[in-house]
Amino acid sequence: MTPEHASSPGTVVRLGDVGSTNDEAMQRLRDGGVAVWVVAERQLTGRGRRGRPWVSEKGNLYASHAFVSDLPPDAFGFLPLAVAVAVADAIASATGLSPRLKWPNDILVDGAKVCGILLETQISGPPDPVRRVVIGIGINVAHAPDRTDSPIPAIALHTLVPGLTLDTLLDALRQEVAAILATLGRVGGVAEIRERWLARAVGLGEQVVVRFDQETREGRFDGLDSTGRLILVDAAGNLSFITAGDVFVRSERV
User: Within its chain, how far is the Cα of 107 from the centroid?
Assistant: First the structure.
């Protein structure tokens, strides 16, 4: 069966309780060879970045999109930021709100986190290597998790848009993800998405703190380079290019 690639919106599989929509979607892609969206009422073993647990109460949107990627390396490296743009645009389309982006791919509404995104890949070996990708997206619609241990609170979209339905949000999400993947695969697509990401950026031009496992750095958030790394300028004017870390605007508690 010919694999279905990134620009396809994919079929939708709706489930009740699952362990992880990412795991389920990846397995269905491996079995069927076609792009798929898996949507669940709840995840029992959901996970976020760096293996952090992801609370998955019924009433929120838990969706994972699995597909075969033929994106070139520069475009593939920009995928996390591209997905953040797509999710922000989908929320804006479905709700009329104006989500902001915190590097690399946190989605904020009214300064509070509304979404979690987790990308995972599997690459099959020779003679015909295939890169399978799954994009996991959890959006707080009816419930927001307790984030008392974080400087950034969480918010549920129903707080601001009580009539929002999961189907409306899912339809917008599928359209925007398909569109952003098609853009990413075009000549000039990375530059376009970089500008779209920066247009929604939180803290651009401001003092930020970047927290790593063993240290923190402070400086001015001076934009993104061509690969999506955060450009940090310290007090002496020295540039750092950040590939991973938790970013906080200096006014936030860290």
Answer: 8
Q: For residue 144, what are the CA distances in angstroms to 58, 106, 236, 242? A: 11, 15, 40, 29
Residue 58: both structure tokens together: 């019924």
Report the C-alpha dihedral over residues 181, 182, 187, 190, rounded to 10 degrees: -30
How far apart CA 54 and CA 51 sit, in angstroms, is: 9
CA distance 46 to 21: 8
pLDDT of residue 188: 95
Instruction: Return the number of other C-beta atoms located less than 10 Å from residue 191's C-beta.
Output: 11
Which helix or strand (DSSP H or E) is residue 122 part of? strand 112-123
pLDDT of 216 > 60? The answer is yes
pTM of the model: 0.90
Q: What is the largest CA-CA distance in the chain?
A: 57
Confidence tier at 254 by pLDDT (50, 70, 90): very low
Q: Closest Cα to residue 223, out of 238, 251, 244, 203? A: 203
